[in-house]
Design a protein that fits this description.
The two termini are 25 Å apart. The chain has strands at residues 4-9, 19-24, 27-34, 37-42, 56-58, 61-63, 70-72, 77-78, 81-85, 88-94, 97-106. It has 110 residues and is mainly β. The protein has a single domain (4-106), classed as Rieske [2Fe-2S] iron-sulphur domain (Rieske Iron-sulfur Protein, 3-layer Sandwich), CATH 2.102.10. The protein has no helices and 11 strands. The structure holds FE2/S2 (inorganic) cluster. Residues 45, 47-50, 64, 66-67, 69 line the site of FE2/S2 (inorganic) cluster.
Length: 110
């Protein structure tokens, strides 16, 4: 089952090496781009709740702005702690709009 909702236009989505917060459907997501594809993760860091979308990208990892835990953007898991993960959401592009699937949020693991 899927529940896609609009997130942003393709033009507004972050470019490779960028990360940001985007609000949709009453939630805030951490949004970045990996290998050309938009990636949507939970925005709340599992360490102490830092806003991951306000962090930065280093070597394919989203770095939390509060204490610098680094999460692999592909898996959502912290590089130093494989059990500390954020969910990654299903994403699709429809007619120039990036949509996020609220039902297909997964802990992908390392
Ligand atoms: S809250 Fe994210 S590293 Fe501490």
């Amino acid at each position: 089952m899927s529940q896609f909702v609009p997130l942003c236009s393709v033009a507004e989505a972050p470019k490779e090496g960028e990360v940001c917060e985007i609000a949709a459907a009453g939630r805030v997501f951490c949004v970045t781009r990996v290998d050309g594809k938009v990636v949507v993760l939970d925005n709340v860091c599992p360490h102490r709740g830092g806003p991951l979308g306000q962090g930065l990208i280093e070597n394919g990892h989203v770095v939390c702005p509060w204490h610098a835990w680094a999460f692999n953007a592909k898996t959502g898991c912290a590089s130093h702690h494989p059990n500390a993960c954020v969910r990654r959401y299903g994403v699709r592009e429809v007619e120039g709009v990036v949509e996020v699937d609220l039902e297909q949020a997964k802990f992908l693991g390392n």
